[in-house]
Amino acid sequence: MSGRVGRYHMPGYAGPLSLKMMLRGRGRWRTGTTEHLVTPGSVLILNAGQHYSLTIEDEDIETLCPFFADALVREAVRARRLDLGALLDRPRDVDARTPEFVERLRQPSLDLLADAQRLRRAIQGEGEAHDALLRLLDRVLLEFVDERERIAELPAARAATREELYRRVHRARDYIHATLDGDLCLDTLARVAALSSYHFHRSFRAVVGTTPARYVSEQRLLRAHELLRARELAVSEVVFEVGWSSLGSFSTAFKRRFGVSPARVRDANSQARRSAEKGARSTVGP
């Protein structure tokens, strides 16, 4: 899907393993009680059979959401597990299970982005789509292997406990991304993760690599910087949209993070936009 949409809603749907990407704009995928806000800097992998709905409110959007048939996924998993001789002996014997991903927003690797763009170009007629889809599936399976390794490193005795902690922390992390303008205090996030505040704080730091408060502040600052560059908004409006408590503390934190005041970013963006509009008008004849 691409173009100018305005508002689009797709109600409940379930399909095979799939990748959800927004090349332009932002989309909200809801699975059960969890909402995942997907932007050009993130990707969502949904497992086979997962029911979800999609809401898009941005006007200028482009999505890339490839689906991977169950049989194709099992075949690819089996090919990774067996040596070439075994594959030649049993070419039609597909007995591997479809991998079960932790449902969470992910920061795509450069390799995954490159393979996704290759598929996009193939869909537009600039390549072989099936080959591009297989390459992207292989990259997605590598993501699964990396995720299993990260879960195994968590400080918990039982494997099932480590995976459940990983899921719960990322449920809260995705909640942060979806509700930056909301109440994101420690107690609220701990409730989302269904953990005590103390246990959540420790687990979040182990999984994400920083504290919940620092992560929230960083995401709010990044979103504010994006808004100031992309839209004609007053700094006070941006402060409200990203849920910061006060204009003064926001300006101090913003300058510390980006080395420039939010007003300077906004003014530079406004000036660049006016210059672009003036240049566009000057190229139009009578």
Q: How would you characterize the largest beta sheet?
A: 6 strands, antiparallel
Tell me the series of helices and strands, N- to C-terminal: EEEEEEEEEHHEHHHHHHHHH
Helix content: 40-55%
- How many DSSP E strands? 10
The chain-level mean pLDDT equals 87
Uncertain parts: 82-91, 282-286
Distance between the termini: 36 Å
Q: How much of the polypeptide forms β-strand, as a percent range?
A: 15-25%
What is the 3D form? Answer: globular
CATH class of the largest domain reads: Mainly Beta
- Per the CATH scheme, the topology name of the largest domain is Jelly Rolls
Name given to the CATH architecture of the largest domain: Sandwich
Rounded Rg: 22 Å
Structural class: alpha+beta
The figure for the number of domains is 2
Query: What is the tally of helical segments?
Result: 11
GO molecular function: DNA-binding transcription factor activity; sequence-specific DNA binding
Pfam family, one: HTH_18
Protein name: Transcriptional regulator, AraC family protein
InterPro entries: AraC_XylS_family_regulators, Homeodomain-like_sf, HTH-like, HTH_AraC, Tscrpt_reg_AraC-type_HTH
